[in-house]
Design brief:
The complex is a heterodimer of chains A (354) and B (503). Chain A has 354 residues and is of the alpha/beta class. Chain A has 13 helices and 14 strands. In chain A, strand 10 and strand 11 form a beta hairpin. Chain B is built from 21 helices and two strands. A two-stranded antiparallel sheet of chain B has the order 1-2. Classes of the chains: A alpha/beta (354), B mainly alpha (503).
Chain lengths: 354, 503
């Protein structure tokens, strides 16, 4: 009898252990949700979904994706930060949005140092033209047209990376005439406006224009990266740094679309997310997705992610300020340095990224 | 010819795969149910199902997602006809005659006609998409910011003048009230908060879906609860499929509505709702029986339903050639294709020559499945009409709450829906039409942003904008709408005065 009890107890223990193993879920109490700060089908949504799908595959658990658009992602950022920081609510947006959260006071709780960020891909910015319609065929033509105030620049929206890129380029090129911007609400639409001759130049996330450049409908004058890009046998796009030494100081503001989790979320969930993120970035599906969209897989997380996002946050905040788009706060009043004065060690000490 | 043989081959290959057939029929019924429930839209359904489709091979994913898209776009007509609450914004024009037909005991016939019209509209647009894509995509490039602004303005004006038989000025007032409401939130160019009073929720703007459900759904419930004897629909359900003799005289209206739908689909941003209203307007003006529109005309159901489904094929044209979606669900489909490694755009025909025929074949299968389910489920759906409305409509309330919450996952949206319901109820009491409010809310941001972008482009001057021919056509159309509307209002008030004198 005693033996029987011992065997039963051992079996029960084994069963409990087995059940425990089977149930070792990252999110035991329910299903986590990634709140995307922009609408379904938009650039951020499209960039984030493949990462979430692959992370689901790795973790074997469903991760919901919910679109909560509004105020450049600030509504979703505030919503996630307002929920319990239990690791069940995550946030996704474009890296170019954070500067606006501060200087426009739209999301005081959603600033970079309050999150762990996982950046899987990045896309360089490019200047594209339609030489037939605009008469602009070279960088010199472009500078002359901008200086003469004869070229309007199409951008997706103001205050984001592509806008910052134009301002940085104009400053380095010595263009003193204020730039006339026309927004189009999307990089694809900017490309079409350049093709149609509605604007002379487009500053775009290159992924949106790569096919137009391949097919010869648009010409890319240069990219915001450090190496040339050989697109086809006939088309090689120069990096902006090859245009002259004055352009080497232009900051690398390539946009990313991170998935973020509050910094004080349970460590075991953050670790599991990080592990799944690294795995997802190594998968062929991610590489294929990045390649066909003109992105680059970067697998940026931890301090590396903090450092780059903080730099972008500062640079964008000042672009907004310089363009007269900072509505509530002067970046100087929040101790935000300009890109050229930015220093990671002092930023880390100030905000205690840990 | 070879091209059509290729599409035929693709079509039969889809039908030979039982998995694809199951996905099409499953996706179609899922889409129909989404369309039937007020507040759940094709965009939402596609957003939820993209992750599921990611694991499927491309052909299956395309078939599945397009079946959901076609089903959801068509399903909106059911609630519009049965309970006068459009299941989707695109079905608002259908409600005008559809609900009148339901009250006359012809709900089955209206639903049957609606589904057949949706089927024809989809097929028509697929044919245009497959044959004229290389020519028509250039039309999308002709629509700059100025033309988009004028089209949006035209949409609000036309809806305002159509949704009331008596006084179009009332329709315009409500339309521009919707326009004004759409100004709440962070505007899209400078991210400047307008009319937000420091509230973060208002910074996100007035949510469309919650407002739609509120003004149509909650106000209808309040209206029915107020009536001492709510109207009842009695008698037999009757036939669902109209006889061929009904359709023959409607052929010109069908072709016209199909063309309108395709063109509106090609124009980025306009969407299914504008197509439906424009088609309803032209139907009313051009039909020999235009005077019956608004009183329960089958043609009044057919015109918007052909057009809103024809938008599907139209929206695919800029999507496949320029990677610019013509409507919000098309944007979702574009995102799904990107996930599958297909990059719509100018290189599509070179890199994926089989993709366009695949989309065409999948859309044909999806429309057949939609028609099958629509006609099969029409009778059970119509039986819902027989439930006493004072019982049925309160049952609809939980669905409206789900729909409102599902749109933005915010409890704020539910409160706003209830508020919009009270506003809608008051407007109904004062004999104001409700559809223009929703269309104003949909098209307001488009009109606002496009107008300012057009001025950015012209550096603040109107002169360059006056040199655009499509703009002139639209401006003349708007001027004519204003003129005919004011004339109608003057006549109406003249008759009112005479009646008072006689009285």
């Amino acid at each position: 009898m005693r033996k029987l009890v011992l065997v039963a107890a051992a079996l029960a223990l084994a069963a409990a252990a087995f059940v425990g193993t089977a149930d070792a879920k990252v999110w035991e109490k329910g299903t986590p949700t990634v709140y995307v700060g922009f609408g379904a089908g938009g650039g951020t949504d499209t960039a984030v979904r493949p990462l979430v799908v692959l992370m689901q595959k790795r973790l074997g658990e469903t991760i919901n994706v919910v679109n909560m658009p509004g105020a450049s992602g600030a509504v979703a950022a505030e919503d996630v930060m307002g929920k319990p920081h239990d690791g069940y609510s995550l946030f996704a947006t474009g890296s170019g949005c954070f500067g606006g959260y501060d200087v426009n006071d739209t999301s005081p709780n959603g600033l970079p140092w309050k999150w762990w960020g996982f950046h899987h891909i990045q896309g360089p910015a490019a200047f594209v033209v339609n030489p037939e319609k605009s008469g602009i065929n070279t960088v010199d033509d472009l500078i002359k047209a901008l200086q003469a105030g004869k070229a309007s620049v199409g951008v997706s929206s103001l205050g984001a990376g592509i806008h910052a890129f134009v301002e940085a380029f104009a400053k380095a090129a010595g263009v003193t005439t204020p730039i006339n911007y026309v927004t189009h609400g999307g990089d694809g639409k900017t490309c079409v406006a350049v093709m149609a001759g509605d604007v002379e130049v487009g500053s775009i996330s290159f992924s949106a224009g790569v096919d137009y450049v391949k097919s010869g409908q648009l010409k890319a004058l240069f990219l915001n990266r450090r190496d040339p890009l050989q697109l086809t046998d006939k088309v090689t796009i120069p990096p902006i740094t090859s245009l002259g030494p004055q352009y080497s100081s232009i900051p690398d503001l390539a946009e990313t679309w991170p998935v973020m989790i509050p910094r004080d979320a349970p460590k075991e969930i953050v670790d599991a997310v990080q592990e799944a993120f690294i795995w997802a970035c190594q998968q062929k599906e991610m590489k294929d997705f990045a390649e066909q969209m003109g992105y680059e897989v970067i697998t940026r997380y931890g301090e590396d992610a903090d450092r780059v996002l903080d730099y972008q946050f500062c640079a964008y905040a000042w672009v907004l300020q310089d363009a007269g788009l900072a509505q509530k706060v002067n970046p100087k009043d929040h101790n935000i340095p300009r890109a050229e004065d930015w220093n990671w060690d002092s930023r880390k000490a100030l905000y205690g990224y840990k | 010819m070879e091209y059509f043989q290729y599409i035929g081959g693709m079509f039969s290959s889809m039908l030979r795969d039982p998995y694809i057939v199951a996905l099409i029929f499953g996706g179609s019924v899922m889409g129909l149910l989404v369309g039937v429930i007020p507040g759940l839209t094709a965009t939402m359904a596609l957003a939820l199902l993209i992750n599921i489709s990611y694991g499927m091979p491309l052909e299956r994913a395309v078939a599945f997602l397009l079946a959901v898209y076609v089903g959801a776009t068509s399903g909106g007509l059911c609630a519009a006809i049965m309970i006068n609450i459009p299941g989707t914004p695109a079905a608002a024009a259908t409600a005008i005659d559809g609900f009148q037909l339901a009250k006359q005991g012809k709900g089955g016939l209206a639903i049957g006609t609606g589904f057949i019209a949706s089927f024809i509209g989809t097929l028509f647009s697929i044919f245009i998409m497959l044959t004229l894509t290389p020519v028509l995509y250039k039309l999308a490039m002709k629509f700059g910011h100025w033309e988009t602004f004028l089209l949006a303005l035209f949409g609000i004006m036309i809806c305002g003048s159509l949704s009331t038989d008596k006084d179009p000025i009332k329709g315009w007032i409500v339309g521009f009230l919707g326009f004004a409401l759409s100004m709440v939130g962070m505007e899209e160019i400078y991210a400047f908060p307008r009319f937000t009073f420091g509230s973060l929720q208002l910074k996100g703007g007035i949510p469309l879906i919650a407002t739609l459900i509120g003004v149509f759904g909650i106000s209808e419930v309040l209206g029915v609860l107020q009536e001492s004897i709510p109207y009842k629909i009695e008698g037999k359900i009757g036939r669902i499929i109209p006889p061929l003799s009904v359709f023959k005289p409607l052929l010109p209206a069908t072709i016209r509505s199909g063309i309108i739908g395709v063109i509106i689909g090609i124009v980025p941003g306009a969407g299914e709702d504008v197509g439906a209203w424009l088609s309803y307007d032209l139907g009313k003006r051009r039909s020999k029986e235009g005077h019956k529109f608004g009183t329960g005309s089958l043609e009044g159901v057919l015109c918007p339903e052909v057009a809103n489904n024809a938008v599907i094929g139209g929206a695919m044209i800029p999507l496949l050639t320029l990677a610019i979606p013509g409507s919000p669900p098309a944007a979702m489909f574009l995102a799904a294709m990107n996930l599958h490694g297909v990059r719509p755009g100018p290189m599509l025909n070179i890199e994926n020559p089989e993709f366009l025929p695949m989309v065409g074949a999948a859309l044909i299968c999806a429309s057949c499945a939609m028609l099958f389910w629509g006609l099969l489920l029409a009778k059970p759906m119509v039986s819902v009409l027989k439930i006493k409305r004072e019982i049925l409509l309160p049952l609809v309330v939980p669905l409206t709450v789900i729909g409102a919450y599902g749109g933005g996952v915010r409890i704020f949206d539910v409160y706003l829906m209830l508020f919009a319901g009270v506003v809608g109820y008051l407007l109904r009491q004062m004999d104001y039409p409700l559809a223009p409010l929703v269309l104003g809310l949909i098209l307001g941001p488009l009109a606002d942003v496009s107008f300012r972008q057009a001025l950015m482009q012209s550096r603040g001057s109107f002169i360059p904008l006056m040199q655009r021919p499509i703009g002139w056509i639209l401006m003349l159309a708007i001027a004519w709408l204003v003129w005919s509307g004011v004339k109608r209002a003057v006549e109406y008030y003249g008759k009112q005065r005479e009646a008072i004198k006689v009285g």
